[in-house]
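[User]
Protein folding is very new to me. Any chance you could explain this protein sequence and its structure tokens? I have pasted everything here:
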Amino acid sequence: MDLHNNKNKYTIAELEANINELCLWDILQTQRLTADFCFTYFWSLNDEYAKDEEDKDICEHDILHWQPHLTREELYSCNVYRARQKKYS
């Protein structure tokens, strides 16, 4: 997948199917993402999808900067966040 030459081209399903082949920063900077996708892959438990230290360091500010259509409220009200909160509360 050529993320940089195909900005906002790939569906969430395509990105998920190829997540282990892709750098998280490249996804963040080039594709339009959902709050659930961001929470699932950028803030996964144990950084399981991170390819390097930079991927591990993706924070709320980075997501809101590169995904301006998302709000902080959307991130913290997405289904993945709520399910995780319920599981670990």
